[in-house]
Design a protein that fits this description.
The protein is α+β, with helices and mostly antiparallel strands. Helices cover 54% and strands 17% of the residues. The protein has 3 domains: 184 residues, no CATH class; 59 residues, no CATH class; 131 residues, no CATH class.
Amino acid sequence: MIREAVVQALRLLWAHRMRSLLTTFGLVWGTASVIFLVGWGEGARLTMEDGFFRAGRNMGEVWAGKVGEDFSPAVDRRFLWFGMQDVEALRQRARLPDLVGAEAWEMLPATFGQRALNLDVRGMDPEAVAIRGVGVTAGRTLSAADVQRRRRVALLGEKARRRLLGPEGRLGDRIRIAGKPFEVIGFLEPVGTQLSRDRMEIDDQVWVPITTVQLNWPSWWTDDAVVTKVIYRIPDPRLLDASKLEVRAILADQLGVDSDDTEAVGIWSALDRLNQLPTQQSRGMLFILAATTLLVGGIGVLNMMLDAVHERRPEIGVRLAVGARRRDIIAQFFVETATICGLGGIVGAILGVGACLLLAHLPMPDLVPIPVLRPGIVVTALVVLAVVGVASGVVPAWRAARVDPALTLRMD
């Protein structure tokens, strides 16, 4: 029974080749569209996450401002700053962050041979380096000993290395930062375009021990070892809001200000911006668009099968007259519809998967979304195709089962 229905479906396709081509094209294009567009939406989401997290995944950034006007008269709104003791207090008291680091920034002139330029010099501790998550392509990273001994050693970002050292630069070279000699101990991995950054991108930065910055370029307004920014990492993005409350409460207590004063202790995370982007809504719209294309293909199959029922009424009447049950007729037309949809779906799946794989292997500009191919996406496309196939087969099968054998046998 099933084999005969499949053969009949193939004969139907061959007998009406042009109509069959146009009908199956709708199914092929619709199935490929579901796979490609849903995969592209997932790729866009991952690309956005990558762009925002290149400066540090699940990272919070904290800076000291000044006492808010709601918490102090205007004349008493003093400026605030963090010191290393505040960082240590946060490490000891905070429970939600799994890592806390400190950074001190300076824009300083750097020279090597005949080259000279201003660079973003970042004083870092090992925890801050770990939070940023940037490895080295050569040499080594900053160590706790470098920080403790206030060594004049430097890690160069990719662009900073090319601009300052040139093609002849290598590990062990000595550069001068604001006139002071530093040894190049490593080259940072290329990070690329960042969707979240402070001042300059990591590729343009030079990383040195934080204590070296604090010793050689101290702040003029205090004798404290000033920390420009405290950064921390949380193990789960869902802890973002709770971690902000905890971190602000601890650091506000350290500074002697109100824990609700967001001007005194400012906190920002790339997760804030990422959560504001309508990535889920965009993926849903792409799915609806692709599913609609597949639905149009299903309408073509519906029309084709209705024509087949009309043309084969004498055949259906004869089968019913010689003892075929109506459910056999229904099953036959369902199998025929499923065969047509299956052929279109298989070709469409091959086309959609092939397009995703092709784009994944082509050289693309930085942060251009590439479709992500996952088994669940293909399964989703096939499920949608199955639903469309069932819907396309209901009406033709019902029409075929209602054919009156007596009338068809009297037809000339």
